[in-house]
Amino acid sequence: MTPYLNLGGDSAVTSYQYGHDFIEVEFKHKDIYRYSYLRPGSQHVEIMKTLADNGEGLGAYINKYVRDKYEKKIR
Length: 75
Description:
A 5-stranded antiparallel β-sheet has the order 1-2-3-4-5, covered by helices on one side. It contains 2 helices and 5 strands, in the order ββββααβ. By secondary structure, the protein is α+β, with helices and mostly antiparallel strands.
């Protein structure tokens, strides 16, 4: 997993990793969720990848748009 930069300083996201059609996000409480092209969809996943790489806005985006729309809980 890649550490999330958290440039805003207040994100619950701690790390992430992604592949062609998914992103997995780890939160402070150690849970990891997979968001994919299957659920919540490619548009959301691609935006989340960009936010993750930019180190800002990923947690807010998840809370606002895809909170419970993950494909599966990894841990």
